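# step 3/5: fold
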Amino acid sequence: QVELAKSYGISGFCFHYYFFDNRKILNIPLDLFVENIRDFPFCISWANENWTRRWDGAEHYVLLRQTYSPDMLRNFVRSIIPYLEKENYIRYQGKPLLLIYRPRHLPEDGIYLIREEFERIGIGEVFIAGVRFGKEPMIHPPSKYGLDSFVLFPPHEVKFIDVKNEMKDLNPHFSGFIYSYDGVLEHDIEQFKLGYDSPKFRGLMCGWDNTARVNLSSRIFVGFTPLKLRRWLKEIIKQEMKYNFNSEKLIFINAWNEWAEGTYLEPDQRYGRAMLEAVRSALIVNQDQPTVTGRLKEIISNFNKDLSFNYKYKPIVGKFFKIFKGKPENKGKPTMLLCAHNISEKLFGAERSFIDMVRNASKFFNVIVTLPGVNNTTYIEELQKWACYIYAFEYPQWFAGRGFRHDVFLRFLDILLKHGVSFAYINTIVLYEPILAAKFLNIPVIIHAREIYSKDPYIQKQIGKRKEDFKHWLLSYADFIVCNSKSTYDEYYDNSQAHKFYIIPNAVKLPDSDIKNEIKTGKIIFGMISSNIPKKGVRDFVECALKLKEYAEEAEFWVIGPRNQFVEKISKEVTNFPFIKFIDYVPSPEEALQSINVLLSLSHFAESFGRTIAEALAYRRPVIAYDHGATSEIVEHGVNGFLARFKDVDEVANY
């Protein structure tokens, strides 16, 4: 715990200390810390209240009663001397720091007696700070109560904004309170925007939910996220730098491990280390930039031990950044980040598969989507039906030799923190900044492998790594790998990490009714439906058509897709062959498939699944395809189509 705290910028621990009737209670954790830890600061806070069955310090259901007498107070002082004498005990203004949780519980001369005993023993002056306990307001300066300073300790003395009526599906027997976390944060920042009226140590809390202790009468603050914790701490630091003229500044966070009250910095299953990362991020704002640089260099060095990587710290400002709001977040669901790697101007297989993923994931998670572009309004509007937020900004794919994008990394870091993301789902193997950001926060990463690296020369050239090196990277940085076919699974599977791998094929929607495959014009229509980029095999399709020109009276060959420059060039080359037609992009896959009788799939890379192939078969359209990649997992040769040798146009024509 100490190493964890130190690595995230926590300066020390403040231990609750319990002392009843001249005896210590629950002191073993503190004693073990003192015995074994020499290099991490600590102090104690005397939790001087009754122990009750309800854990509220009240007078009912008392288990251990807190009593006070002059002898008891002197014994309390003597009991903590061994702690205060430790070299790593926190001193403020040169004095040992002692917090008292409920100073108004003490007798009127209690603080005086405590100070007197410290002097008598030889400790000298002690800096005593009292927690501002909500039920016992202190309207005067701390000196009026014998204190050197107050300590703000949310949720005491905070702004209570009741949002209980806004909760859905609330247990009808719930008799507790539900307040807004945002209200607490905003009020705390607002009340000190002009400075302090008395000495005080600022405090803040993580979430708060003590249902574990009091069940249906709990007090809950809703709306907490690590990003809000970061903002609160950042604002406190700004106000401290502006209004606190002491060279030493202390800020208390409630709490390190108050699990029973739902406020803790320790890692958990929902946020991982996001709370700790929020603290470090807020602290970094007020540190020299080389600290950030050094941390990033360390991450990137680990990321790239086996791959040559060009580190560039200089930020590159993206061309755009837009946020699209979708469906409301469901506070009862965990949150996932789903990163797309491409956005085309039209809806092709990749975009439709991504929509399917978001739609289905939204049944179980709050989905936060990132897109690398804004050039498809229809796509974004469709995603808004299922995602809670869509962040569109420039983040490039992995290209050999390109530098690390510090600005992109920070953008992903901010999104992960803002939404308290439980895991990051990277919908490709060709992104790395979102993976680094998630790893930075210790958030699990799922990589959806949709590319077969060793059989895709385009990806190999783009990334520029040997298959072995790339596979090593994938296995090192993915907590789980979802493969969309057996072929993809075989490409990356490692027996020593078998627990990481899952095969989840792409799925296509079956037509609502049986779609007959009819020859409507007296000619069989052979079609290619694609994005019409060169690697999709458009030229092979045209070459196949030319080999079959003697059958022009019986068949036509349609290229269905965008009329880009590549297609325009080919169309001009075959102007004299009217049985080869170029049909512009058809938004509806159903409409495109019903216009043809046979689908040809002749990609020059290994299709890891082939969504269009699956859709064609669902619409009773046989498929002729290259036997390359995962096509043989969908097309059963001689049953629902034919498989030809890779790039063998003659064999395609024969079928």
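# step 4/5: annotate
The first strand starts at residue 13 and ends at 20.
# step 5/5: archive (pending)
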